[in-house]
Design goal:
The protein is mainly beta. It has no helices and nine strands. 0% of the residues lie in helices and 46% in strands. Strands 3, 4, 5, 6, 7, 8 and 9 form a seven-stranded mixed sheet that branches. Strands 1-2 form a two-stranded antiparallel ribbon.
Length: 169
């Protein structure tokens, strides 16, 4: 049950001795006269929260609930040993997107990984929180060679279908 929202405030009361009042200083807004304390409250209401089904799929459930997509890209695909390349993941959608964590990636031992601070572009809409959360990682190869980065997956609970879904890069 959601309790009522309550606001208590003092409202100016018209002075009965001067019904017309001064057009400026007699105005109730500017009056230093008598005030009356008023209390305003909404009704309480009940919300039924259904449990999510237990997750039994492969991989890890991200904790995200809503509708999401996942994108990824490198800023370039050729780099000299010791230089960095930026790997960017973008989680987009509607739901608890602010809770998104950086996707788990598997890279060869020939790379050092440095995480950057995530960027959020999230707004509140009629459908809930909506937007993008961007994760960047600097990958620095320490040995020459040709490498393939495996796809990254994101498992979330889809509120439209009522089930768990996995999206992949």
């Amino acid at each position: 049950e959601i309790e009522p929202a309550v606001v208590t405030c003092d409202l100016p009361v018209a002075d009965s001795r001067d019904p017309l009042g001064d057009p400026f200083f007699g105005n109730r807004f500017f009056s230093m006269g008598r005030q009356e304390t008023r209390r305003f409250a909404t009704e309480s209401f009940k919300v039924k929260v259904n449990p999510m089904p237990a997750y039994q799929g492969p991989g890890r459930f991200s904790g995200l609930v809503g509708r999401f997509s996942l994108g990824a890209g490198l800023d370039r695909d050729t780099v000299t040993s010791g230089e960095s390349v930026t790997l960017t993941f973008t989680v987009s959608g509607t739901g608890n997107i602010m809770d998104a964590q950086a996707p788990e990636i598997r890279v060869p031992d020939s790379f050092k990984i440095y995480d950057d601070v995530p960027e959020e572009k999230i707004t509140l809409t009629r459908d809930g929180f909506q937007g993008d959360k961007v994760f960047k990682r600097a990958l620095v190869p320490v040995a020459p060679g040709s490498f393939v980065l495996e796809p990254v997956e994101l498992c979330y609970f889809n509120t439209d279908t009522g089930g768990y879904e996995t999206v992949s890069t």
